[in-house]
Amino acid sequence: MKRKYLPRIADGDLELALQSSGAVLIEGPKWCGKTRTAQQKAKSEIALQDPDNSANYKKIADTKPSLLLKGETPRLIDEWQTAPVLWDAVRYAVDQRGEKGQFILTGSAVPSDNATEHTGAGRISRLKMRTMSLYESGESNGSVSLQKLFGKEQDIEGLSTLTIEKLSFALTRGGWPASINESNERIALKQVYDYVEAVINYDVSRVDGVEKSPARVRAVMRSLSRNISTMANLSTIRNDIAAGDSSISENTAASYINALRRLWVVEDLPAWNPALRSKTAQRTSPKRHFVDPSIPAAVLRAAPESLLADFNTFGLLFESLCIRDLRIYAQSIDGEAFHYRDRTGLEADAIVHLKDGRWGAVEVKMGSKEIEEAAANLLTLKNKIDTEKMKEPAFLMVLTAGEIAYQRQDGVLVVPIGCLRN
Questions:
Q1: d(CA 128, CA 403)
Q2: What pLDDT is stored for residue 208 in this prediction?
Q3: Euclidean distance between CA atoms 280 and 338, whole angstroms
Q4: How big is the chain by its Cα radius of gyration, in Å?
Q5: Where do the structural domains in the chain lie, given as residue ranges?
């Protein structure tokens, strides 16, 4: 029986994209729900990986690709990258038809750089999909809206029912729609392990056609997992792997990480470079993250119970979960997420920056004892920003694993992740 469709924040993003572009490309990791989301809007579809027809579809794509585009619109072309010629065929069809919302393309891997002859600019809109946020899975009650915070509505209140035990499970299960729909917790957790094993043993080699050692893929993913939520550079990753594989080079490690990036498994958090009052040097290295915190949890064999006994690992993975949700919420309100750190050690775990220049700073802390220090850091960062060149922050937030959402006397917001929404 087909599982029920869980509404996504991306539903609204897709609707808007179809109204503004001739075609929409939905990109994201395998199993995150791209196809099901696209099917909610599509009037016809073709699945290029259908085992009964894939060989025939590829022959048609090589001879007359326009035949695969015939059908009621919007027409869904699932896993289009298996026949890259369809990109230029879609672009051409959009030009010829001159109408919006003609095609939806989905892809769980980025094709090689020379797979398309044209970027699709002006014809094909890109929509990034990730796994589901806690608000989408129903584990956050959504009593605090990120969009409203940017609108200066900061008289917040809320009470999260997401206990540490529930949070530990949600983190290790991840935001995968099939796992969220699964009532058996053991099966839900096993599905994540199966996903990781498929990435290690098959997907990484298939993404670019270059055979890769599963043992090395696993070693690279373990090192990235051990360095989750840090700015570990390539040399650090290579040296970490070298403890068990001294022959691996930085170039090899980089090629493996790039393959994982093309599969949308790895998604680092870029650095934010604001205008400062002083000439303090800012760090430009990204922070290491996966698209979903369940991936490093599975790679490290971290079960919900073991995280409760290892709060150091729990804290790093909790930060990664918060970054996932902030990215999803930010994208829906026309923004992006970054991190900040300078040479003095001052940092913000996340900066949500909107395209209109508004921004807010976030520190992620699991425990209430860390809130005071986090709030002080955020206020220090606020005072460093050159407000003649940039806007004042719309908000300063400490994102926690706690229960109560409130505003401190200094204006800093304390928000449980179980209360946040877009």
A1: 31
A2: 80
A3: 18
A4: 22
A5: 10-128, 144-421
